[in-house]
Specification:
Length: about 160
């Protein structure tokens, strides 16, 4: 499952706060679903900057902590105290953010989402199908359980054959 999201988006924040915790508990943490986050920075320069900041935090192994801090603050960059709590090397973080080295990747991820048919945020790509919007957990459960049932009915590959991961 790939989520395309914007840290400035209130619906993305709603998904993060209400739905993602249950998805993590029931699907991600159990190994049933692999969850990938991609940027869909469409709400202006603040969206792009927040995405770049998250990637810079990611260089220090803090992407998810920074991701959560951004959503807690409705997309605003964490203040000095919050940055200290994240235990980021601020010199490295500032150098990264100032360099703009993640800018092109974020623009490219956003373009991919649009080419896939994203018309708003958040957007989810689940086994090749788009689900647009901050749906409740039950919607994801229905889709994921249906997909699991569909895949369980497929024949196993023959020994020695090559299958897609």
């Amino acid at each position: 499952m790939v989520e395309f999201s914007d840290f400035q988006c209130s619906y993305c924040r709603k998904f993060w706060a209400e739905t993602m915790p249950r998805l993590e508990t029931e699907y991600v943490n159990t190994g049933k679903v692999r969850f990938i986050f991609r940027h869909l920075a469409v709400l202006g320069p603040g969206s792009q900057r927040a995405a770049e900041a998250a990637e810079c935090a990611g260089e220090q192994g803090k992407f998810w902590a920074f991701h959560d801090a951004l959503f807690e603050r409705a997309g605003r960059l964490p203040d000095t105290q919050a940055m200290r709590q994240l235990r980021l090397d601020m010199a490295a973080f500032d150098a990264c953010l100032g360099s703009g080295r993640h800018r092109e990747r974020i623009v490219a991820e956003s373009a991919v989402a649009r080419r896939l048919g994203a018309t708003g945020t958040p957007v989810f790509l689940i086994n090749g199908k788009l689900l647009i919007g901050a749906h409740p957990f039950e919607t994801f459960k229905r889709v994921l359980d249906g997909l699991a049932k569909e895949l369980s009915g497929m024949p196993s590959p023959a020994p020695g054959s090559v299958s897609r991961p």
